[in-house]
Amino acid sequence: MAAASVEDIKLEDIPVDDIDFSDLENQFQVDSEVNFENFVVVDGAPVAPEAKVPMLSKVLGKLFSQAGKVVDINLPIDEDKKCTKGYLFVEFESAASAKKAIRLLNGKKLDVKHRLLVNSLNDVEKYGSDDFESEFREPKLPEFQPTDYLKSWLQDEQGRDQFVLQKGELTGVFWNRNTQQPDNAVEPRTNWSNTTVKFSPRGTYLFSFHNQGVASWGGKSFERLRRYFHPNTKALAVSPTEKYLVTLSPDPISVPEDAPADFPFGPESNGHQLCVWDIATGVSVKTFALPPNQSLHWPMIKWSFDDRYCARLGPNALAVYDAENNFELLGGKILKIENIMDFSFAPAGVKLAVNRNNDLSSVLAYWTPESNNQSCKATIMEIPTRRVLRTVNLVQVSDVTLHWQKQAEYLCVKVDRHSKSKKTFFTNLEICKLTEKDVPVDKVEMKDLAIKFAWEPTGQRFVTISRTESVDDNPAIPKNVVTFFAPEQKEKAAKDDIKKWKAFATVTDKFSNTISWSPAGRFVVVATLVTPDQRKADFDFYDLDFTGEKTDNTSTDVAAKLKAVAHPDFYGATDLRWDPSGRFVAIWSSAVKHKLENGYKVFTVAGQVVREEMIEAFKNFVWRPRPESLLTNGEKKKVRKNLKEWSAQFEELDAMQADSAMRELILLRRSLFEEWNNYRDEITDSMQHEYGYQIFDQIEFSTADEDFEVVEEIKEEILEEKEEQIDSFDEPATSE
Amino acid sequence: MRPILLKGHERSLTQVKFNREGDLIFSCAKDSVASVWYAINGERLGTFEGHQGTIWSIDVDKFTQYAVTGSADFSIKLWDVQTGQNVYTWKTKTPVRRVEFAPSGDKILAVLDGVMGYPGSVTVYEIPRDTQSHQLHQEPSEEPLFNILTHEGFDMAAVASWSFQDQYIAVGHKDGRVSKYDGATGEFIDALELHTQSVSDIQFSPDGTYFITSSRDSDAKLVDIETLEVLKTYETDCPLNSACITPLKQYVILGGGQDAKDVTTTSSREGKFEARLYHKIFQDEIGRVKGHFGPLNYVAVSPQGTSYASGGEDGFVRLHHFDKSYFDFKYDVEKSAEAQKHMQELESSA
């Protein structure tokens, strides 16, 4: 048989399928049991002579078994020097143990000289390979996405306000046009939000709820700006300066093993339910676990007026975080306050008497109930110094609520107290004057239990709704009392007189359950809104600076003149909200809360309906808030002084809005007026120029210029003269 | 607005005038006696007696020193206001329809009827005055300073008035034309076909730079004297006899009514014997004042803009002192413009 040359062997001829590879497969089979994730590499171990190896491996074995069961420890030995090389490999039974070992022992100090560096074998492999790029590369910033001007709605020429209407699945944003059909700001959208929508406190952002979390909208056409991924978000709150968003979900966050790069949460957030976001960037800046076994009060995170600090209530403690320092705890630890019940930040910066240069302080107040050896206390504290500004001690207390005046000049601590027998309840109001030295407190003692309290947003007056608890609790009998308070005005007010508050008017026998002040102050609506145990709504509009003669005041030595100005009807109303300018009140009946008379009505401050619409399945009405006015107090004063001039201009605008024919007419008149003025100006110039003649519109004529003699003539005319002789006064004429 | 009725004339009023201070009213009627009244209470101060026929026109100079009257008895008389004495009389060829002092007081114009072969003219006479006392320092010349004979092709003049600084004379013709002449030489400058019927009145604005015409064709028009450009037109529903421009407020007052010869056959309501207030700029009617039971022959407003008087075919002068609503009334446009101006002033002063 001739030897076959290599060329002759054809690949096709080899019966590959028949060859038995099993021996090779066995030889090179990779033991799948060996998992490199179970290995860690340890650097920085002591260099020990060969003799001491068993000792060392015993110590290290014990140390690493903290993390889990150690399968093997490999201590390589330098053959020349006869000692260990200072590093070792540890094999654990599971990858989880290896991870735990890294977390626990990386950086562990064995003694003064030795510090263990623990890394996973995979990492050493990965970072040690030549392929791994060790040069720093700047992370790629996502390209800047321009948005519409977010404050465009404030530039509306007519200064109109926007509001959101929700009915059924439909949500729309509208311009308030007084008596007219509101204009669409954007086309109403279906399913814009799963539930309601919410504006941020200055109105820049609109937030909607979705299955995947929350989205922010803004700009002229309400484009979507950001998404905040927090599945099943149930509640949201925005910090006062619109920097941060807080979301709460009943579902704990779970970070998947292979989380995508843009997953908002790190592994440390696992199990957390509360999340703080940076609104502008959409980045989650901090997450919190909920404190165990505590009733939830929304908002769970409260902010200082400037968003510098935020705080949340814990069991027997208050945690204050510094937002500018990565949300680290203020001073590195929580504030231990035994039995703390509630707290709140001042809604504005406080000009404390001790502050220099008009500095504004962040201030918070909290209260603790009575305990065995302590009275109930309300405490006012400055942040971040934690300086206690004032403590108010109280006894026989059943409940306390804290009411800040919007400018944070005053804090009213409403103390609901009980008699010793705990049968009658009554309220004390402790009013702290924060801007004065040592924070003096004025106490107002009420005879009954105040259930509602509201400060005038821009002033020093307040309104309470109170009730006397009695035995025959017939809910059909109205027995709520509305009381109006104002600082006392003394005729000769000494400078250092402590301000005292005084009830100057009361309205009895009401069902009222809501107080709503106009954001501009002066006007207040005290309302009964439909609730599960209240069937019929009722509204009273009050003016506290009534300019007329007859007021409803019971005492006059206060800075207020009360007058009930209107009492409009809307029996099915469930909610009420003032517009941000304080010109209109929207009252609506939401199908979510009540089945009858769904729709909304808009009233003026005087309680006149400017607009009403009854809408089936009407759900919600939201005014778009506005930022604080940029005008200084001086400028505001000036506006008030020239109110007549301003109102003339606005009246014209209103007339123009009333209908399009009127608008045409006004525009025509404007042009005619301007044309005429131009004509007169031209004539002025040409007459002056050509003839040296000064034109005029009327002959100036004053009596002072001329010699006038005022002649007064008095004419007396005698109409009748009659003489009568009377003989005697004694006899009456009738006796004849 | 409660009017004061000036009762004193026995026949139809022909013209009513205020003096410059607005405290006296001069009126003349078809009964040949002119009267002077206190504007404040309507009491008659005195009369100018001497004419033999209808006095068509009266005027007073800016010093309230002399008054001039033009009459159907072919004469113009100059009167001393203080004494009521006739100071001088010019004889004319035809009846005198209109007389008016030039703003300076140094000249008068007279509109002479075109009858009896005379073509009609606007004739200007000089009043020789002392520059200090404004008294006549010599007898006026009998001869006119110049004579503007009716322009060829035009109907004769019905009314005429002086512009600012005696610069021009504006003449309204029977055919609805308005023509313009040099006030110093009488030279023809320009003409304008303004109305379709006779021009019944021409009154200048307080400063004499624009004038209002009224016409039997029911329209009143505001015209600039320099350019003879029509600025505004006020349309009414009845023949107009008179129109004036109010100082102080941007209004015009129009007066007229059914023709005198038709009066007996129409009730006062149908006769439209009302003074009408129009907004000068917006051309809207803003109000009417009733009262006369004949057509209004003349309306005049006080130079201060606080009162107006109307002389009617019924023989009465009705003097109205405007009340608050007249002064307060403003269009939204005016209010807001005023407000803006006020605020600008505040800003610039701050």
TrEMBL record, chain A:
<dbReference type="InterPro" id="IPR013979">
    <property type="entry name" value="TIF_beta_prop-like"/>
</dbReference>
<dbReference type="InterPro" id="IPR000504">
    <property type="entry name" value="RRM_dom"/>
</dbReference>
<dbReference type="InterPro" id="IPR035979">
    <property type="entry name" value="RBD_domain_sf"/>
</dbReference>
<keyword id="KW-0648">Protein biosynthesis</keyword>
<feature type="domain" description="RRM">
    <location>
        <begin position="38"/>
        <end position="123"/>
    </location>
</feature>
<dbReference type="Pfam" id="PF08662">
    <property type="entry name" value="eIF2A"/>
</dbReference>
<keyword id="KW-0396">Initiation factor</keyword>
<comment type="similarity">
    <text>Belongs to the eIF-3 subunit B family.</text>
</comment>
<dbReference type="GO" id="GO:0016282">
    <property type="term" value="C:eukaryotic 43S preinitiation complex"/>
</dbReference>
<dbReference type="InterPro" id="IPR015943">
    <property type="entry name" value="WD40/YVTN_repeat-like_dom_sf"/>
</dbReference>
<dbReference type="GO" id="GO:0010494">
    <property type="term" value="C:cytoplasmic stress granule"/>
</dbReference>
<dbReference type="GO" id="GO:0003743">
    <property type="term" value="F:translation initiation factor activity"/>
</dbReference>
<dbReference type="InterPro" id="IPR012677">
    <property type="entry name" value="Nucleotide-bd_a/b_plait_sf"/>
</dbReference>
<dbReference type="GO" id="GO:0033290">
    <property type="term" value="C:eukaryotic 48S preinitiation complex"/>
</dbReference>
<dbReference type="GO" id="GO:0071540">
    <property type="term" value="C:eukaryotic translation initiation factor 3 complex, eIF3e"/>
</dbReference>
<comment type="function">
    <text>RNA-binding component of the eukaryotic translation initiation factor 3 (eIF-3) complex, which is involved in protein synthesis of a specialized repertoire of mRNAs and, together with other initiation factors, stimulates binding of mRNA and methionyl-tRNAi to the 40S ribosome. The eIF-3 complex specifically targets and initiates translation of a subset of mRNAs involved in cell proliferation.</text>
</comment>
<dbReference type="GO" id="GO:0003723">
    <property type="term" value="F:RNA binding"/>
</dbReference>
<dbReference type="GO" id="GO:0001732">
    <property type="term" value="P:formation of cytoplasmic translation initiation complex"/>
</dbReference>
<protein>
    <recommendedName>
        <fullName>Eukaryotic translation initiation factor 3 subunit B</fullName>
    </recommendedName>
</protein>
<comment type="subunit">
    <text>Component of the eukaryotic translation initiation factor 3 (eIF-3) complex.</text>
</comment>
<dbReference type="GO" id="GO:0042802">
    <property type="term" value="F:identical protein binding"/>
</dbReference>
<dbReference type="GO" id="GO:0043614">
    <property type="term" value="C:multi-eIF complex"/>
</dbReference>
From TrEMBL, chain B:
<dbReference type="GO" id="GO:0016282">
    <property type="term" value="C:eukaryotic 43S preinitiation complex"/>
</dbReference>
<comment type="similarity">
    <text>Belongs to the WD repeat STRAP family.</text>
</comment>
<keyword id="KW-0648">Protein biosynthesis</keyword>
<feature type="repeat" description="WD">
    <location>
        <begin position="6"/>
        <end position="47"/>
    </location>
</feature>
<feature type="repeat" description="WD">
    <location>
        <begin position="48"/>
        <end position="89"/>
    </location>
</feature>
<dbReference type="GO" id="GO:0003723">
    <property type="term" value="F:RNA binding"/>
</dbReference>
<keyword id="KW-0396">Initiation factor</keyword>
<comment type="similarity">
    <text>Belongs to the eIF-3 subunit I family.</text>
</comment>
<dbReference type="Pfam" id="PF24805">
    <property type="entry name" value="EIF3I"/>
</dbReference>
<keyword id="KW-0963">Cytoplasm</keyword>
<keyword id="KW-0677">Repeat</keyword>
<comment type="subunit">
    <text>Component of the eukaryotic translation initiation factor 3 (eIF-3) complex.</text>
</comment>
<dbReference type="InterPro" id="IPR019775">
    <property type="entry name" value="WD40_repeat_CS"/>
</dbReference>
<dbReference type="InterPro" id="IPR001680">
    <property type="entry name" value="WD40_rpt"/>
</dbReference>
<keyword id="KW-0853">WD repeat</keyword>
<dbReference type="InterPro" id="IPR015943">
    <property type="entry name" value="WD40/YVTN_repeat-like_dom_sf"/>
</dbReference>
<dbReference type="GO" id="GO:0071541">
    <property type="term" value="C:eukaryotic translation initiation factor 3 complex, eIF3m"/>
</dbReference>
<dbReference type="GO" id="GO:0001732">
    <property type="term" value="P:formation of cytoplasmic translation initiation complex"/>
</dbReference>
<dbReference type="GO" id="GO:0034399">
    <property type="term" value="C:nuclear periphery"/>
</dbReference>
<protein>
    <recommendedName>
        <fullName>Eukaryotic translation initiation factor 3 subunit I</fullName>
    </recommendedName>
</protein>
<dbReference type="InterPro" id="IPR036322">
    <property type="entry name" value="WD40_repeat_dom_sf"/>
</dbReference>
<dbReference type="InterPro" id="IPR027525">
    <property type="entry name" value="eIF3i"/>
</dbReference>
